[in-house]
Design brief:
Number of domains: 1
Order of helices and strands: HHHH
Structural class: mainly alpha
Distance between the termini: 46 Å
Low-confidence stretches: none
Helix content: over 70%
Oligomer: single chain
Largest sheet: none
Mean pLDDT: 87
Length: about 90
């Protein structure tokens, strides 16, 4: 008799995958904020909260690119607003 049933094994795998995704999401969120802080120094808590509310890793990857290419914090905020307008509403 196996120590772990198939159901338990699948549940553990899903839990691991979910934890990995959350860790990756948090790392990308932190990267965006850190880049902005290094380039523009003052990043508002509201902007940090807005970035931290984004869960889609593909959007966060795009925001990393935008944070590296933006000439100003205002330019980044405009790009962020464009991303929000393209996101599906629930």
């Amino acid at each position: 008799m196996p120590l772990i049933s198939r159901v338990e094994e699948r549940a553990m795998k899903r839990g691991f995958e979910k934890g990995f995704q959350q860790g990756l999401q948090q790392a990308f969120q932190e990267a965006v904020v850190k880049i902005l802080q290094n380039y523009f120094e003052s990043v508002s808590p509201e902007l940090v909260a807005e970035i931290n509310a984004i869960e889609d890793i593909s959007v966060l990857k795009q925001l990393i690119d935008h944070s590296l290419k933006s000439n100003s914090l205002e330019e980044f905020e405009q790009l962020l607003a464009q991303h929000h307008s393209r996101l599906p509403t629930t």
